[in-house]
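Case study.
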Amino acid sequence: MMARIRDSLRLLLGRARFEREMDEEMRGHIAMVADDLVRQGVAPAEALRRARASFGAVEGFKDDARQARGIDWSDAIGREIRHTFRALRRSPGYSLVALLTLALGIGGTTAIFSLLDGLLFKPLPFREPDRLVNLFISARESATGPVELFPWSYPKFEATARAAHSFEAIAGFSNGDANLVIGEPERTRVEYVSGDYFRILGVGAAVGRTLTRADDSIPKAHPVVMLSNGLWRRRFGADSAIVGRSITLGGQRLTVVGVAPLGFGGLSNGVDLWLPMMMAPVFEYDDILRESQNHWFSVVARLKPGVPVAAAEAEMATLGRQVDDQFRGGDQAHPWTATARPLAAVRVDPAVRRTGWILFAATGAVLLIGAINLANLLLIRANGRRRELAVRSALGASRGAIVRHVLTESLVLSILGGAIGVGLAWLAGPVLAAFGPKSGGGPGGTSYLFDATPTLDGRVLLFALAATLITGLVIGTWPAWRASRRPAAGSLHDVRVTAAGRGGRWGVAQGLVLAEAAMAVALVTGAILLVRSLSRLTDVDVGFRSERVLTFRTNPAGSGVSGRDPIQFRSLALAGLRAIPGVAAAGSDLCPPLEGACAASVVTQVDDRVLGGEAGARTIGVHYASPGYFDALRIPVKAGRAFDERDRVGAPNGVIISETAARRLWPGQDPVGKRLGVATGYFRRDTTVAVIGVVGDVRYASADQPAGLDVYIPALQSPFAPTTFIVRTTGDPLAIVEAARRAVRSADPELPIYNVRTMDEIARVSRGRIQFATTLLGLFAGMALLLAAIGVYGVLAYSVSERSREIAVRMALGADRSEVTGLVLRQGMAPIAAGLLLGLLGAGAGARVLHGLLYEVGPTDLASFAVGGLALAAAGLLASWLPARRAAGVDPNRVLREE
Amino acid sequence: MAPLPTPELLQGTLDMLILKAVSLAPMHGYGILLRIQQCSNDALLIQQGSLYPAVYRLEHQGLLSSEWGVSENNRKAKFYQLTPAGRRRLKEEQQGWLSLVDAIAAVMSAKPADLQA
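After joint prediction, the assembly is written out as follows.
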């Protein structure tokens, strides 16, 4: 017995070793024979020849020896696998359905996992990422209102950095655009970082060194830059002699100190160049580090070892209050404070995170429904082979052999299905990346950090393998257990003896159909809720007309033709754009609508009233609009006037506000001629500026967020450089791209334009999040519905064929066809009805998780639930009706004679 | 030299001969052959390679155990010995064989007189 176990173990460990030992033993034998012959005086070569001859055919004996060791598991499994393949080829329809079900289930789950892994599970690629937190200024508009998070001003950041005890170090970072001039001008993404940034993240330099505190101590005094690995390869041919060389950025000469490691794009994502924060006054404007109310950058900090996030949060709450007092005077009803959030928690948009989980659950449900179908199919096949299995078992096949037989089939199916599924996931990757959530603006001006490209890396493949094996075992275990449990004698005696019974035997199958129905109806209802949201969102009025509008961006900050002022550039470029044939109107702003409010500030004064917290009108979107801007977007002027060429430097300052701002700041009054104060650079000279007009609300944040307060500052009165041009055309907006590029070149030959898009595209992307979730959930729901219907059909069709004798007897005793149809329909619809009820209840409870993805559709929207329920009922009815019709077609004479 | 025994005849008896050969001392494959040859006074000649399937089958049945060692002329070889189960089996086979031989001998030595009795 021991020897047998040892043999088996040895075989399991490696057939190779057995072969090697056998070979060695036989060689040794021949050598010994030859030795004896040599001792008897035979020449060595001749001795070996004779020894071989007397031994006989080595390979033949080896074969016999292998046989002699009996049948081992690896042989048997190989035979089972071959057998399974033959069986699958014999029933191609079944194999195709089974493989497709598994491939879609496993592939879908794997694809969504690859997305989710990048979003949620993969640890941040920094040293001890658990100790990294983002710090925010936080505020409530009222005592019960939601907490809003804001970025930092430099003076507040400095005061906080000096006083805080919870952190090893804290660092600010903010991204901007700058134009790199090396031959062809290129727009680059720049991140201003304070001294401890790289040290906090634990990111080193691939070449040279990182920026350090020594590079960030005196304003304007550190003309150094660090390159991203990508830029270094793209523009400098990965030349490691780059360190110490100078490059020209935005008209400034900067010395390269180092190159970042591959894959590091800064906390702002996609950064090409890092500059010390002390250089911001050079590239932005002089006072940027001195303004205490200009909140423009994010802050990251590393907790001291052992300090929990909660402790840091508590310290920031107190410290934030003190800092606010220091810079604002403490008489507000709802003072600002500060808070700390783990970096891992703020790196993903919560709605995106939720979307990921919902989709993952949906694919999981599809896989589960598919697996249930296959378990049923396998059981039916095992039943169909009961006689064969009984014969095998009578001939001495052990229960283990029968279990092995069924499990091999399920595992072969799941592994084949899994392999196809991984292929599908690989194909789906780019599609998911293209339509999936993009990194974007996070709370308090941070960027959401994630790898938007789902990749099939080792983690994902491991997941796919685990999903495949678990699926294979799950779908095989129950049928295998049932098949092996059946007493052999009974089966041989009368295979059909149990067929007439319909009590306990279908209990499990009916339970499974119920589960399938419940999952399918929950998914379908969720998908319908999303579809209704999407249609509401498509119809929503965003406040402007997006058709036939081209937008693109430039940034003349301190660059290009030396010393040209952004205002002059803007005037020239707009004149050039308006001269292009086919252009109806042209204007500019800081950012286009629907892309997240890219500049926001707070209202400080309304007429003579200095604003505290009680006005409930704290934050206001800030825009720099040129003449022609409102025309180009067809934003209606509701009162006063739009900007024109008079609103230039030297003319009296005047701003335009949105309808919501008018309503909230001057309820029931005409705001034109009133005075407004906002904490932004334009209001530095005059604390308050006259309102000269009111325009319609525009959804700047995104299509699904209602407009807030907005103020428009004349672009020709503001030297703030970044500019988005908005050009309305009479024909195809993309047809004028080259002409627009030339118009900008003629205003400044060194300025690149980028982010060239149509407003329609921006509008589409803004709805993308809901669209993405809707499309995928719709797809999964459809698959779930189809699979559930197939499952019901399979179970019923088998039941009808098994019960044909019973049905024939009933008919012979006088039951008519409609009674038989009703019998089968009832049998099919009973578990579906129960599943429907259960699924709708589950969907009602679960729909809350869709909150944030739903737009103007409540999670308890009755119509959606009704449609979802009807869809499943219809699918179930169709799936039951086909077998029912077949049952009604049973010919009692023929069936009973056959018996 | 005696003619080679037919494999059919030896199917059962070869196993018994092998068990008997290794019952005296642990022995490698070649040694087993030599021992059988020597004890039978060269009457039994076994094709050398055919020994191994039989030895592996006995080992697989748990009647023999084996370990690697060095032969008398310094060759690496696998040495087989009886397990307790093998010893029991040898005893059974031996008794069975002897009674078979007795029975056959009795039949073959029968005389006309015995038949009449």
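Observations recorded in class. Chain A touches chain B at residues 1-4, 7, 21-22, 24-26, 28-29, 31-33, 35, 54-58, 60-62, 64-65, 67-70 (CB under 8 Å). The mean pLDDT of chain A is 82. We will return to this complex in the next lecture.
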